[in-house]
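Lab notebook: predicted structure, single chain.

Context: the supervisor wants predicted structures on file for every construct in the current expression panel, including those that have not yet been purified. This is the next one on the list. No modifications to the sequence; it matches the entry in the shared construct table.
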Amino acid sequence: MIIKNISKSLLLASLFASLSAPVIAAKKDLNQEITINANRQSADLKNKIASYFGEVSIIQGSIAITADIVQVYSQIDEKTKLKSDTYLAKGKPAIFKQQLEDGSLISLQADEIKYQPDLQIITVSGNAQVKQAGSQVTGEVITYNTLSEKLEAIGSENNSVTTILQPAQIKAQQHKKDNDSNN
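Prediction complete. Output recorded below exactly as produced.
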């Protein structure tokens, strides 16, 4: 029983370690141009809100967001005068994908995705799911901080959080990381 719990803990640690690569990839991606395609667009210039409707596709480097509706809220920090954007994507499902430094793909999907690139936070809610290296986490709300490398999943009243691990793929990915860092 103790060995089983230790093994489970190691697998969870491996899963969270495998989710840490977006930090490096995200920095490269955030310096790329953003291309947005949609069937229709509107903008509220006074309130700094751009809205995109119908088959929305957003590409920035290896980041790809697809949704039915995406609203982009821009804010300017009064002290620093720096602009930050928040992307709110909705769909059945809305999907966020990013290719990581090691070539693997992380995919987040839900009814709603809130992406805050300047804060390095992605929150997926409503039938939320994160997939990477064959493993997945599902819940009602999943928040991932690419800077601190922390993931939190919350279940709903009727459904718990479910984690499915693929040990062979996690080990292979960790082995590749170890080899890459030794070279």
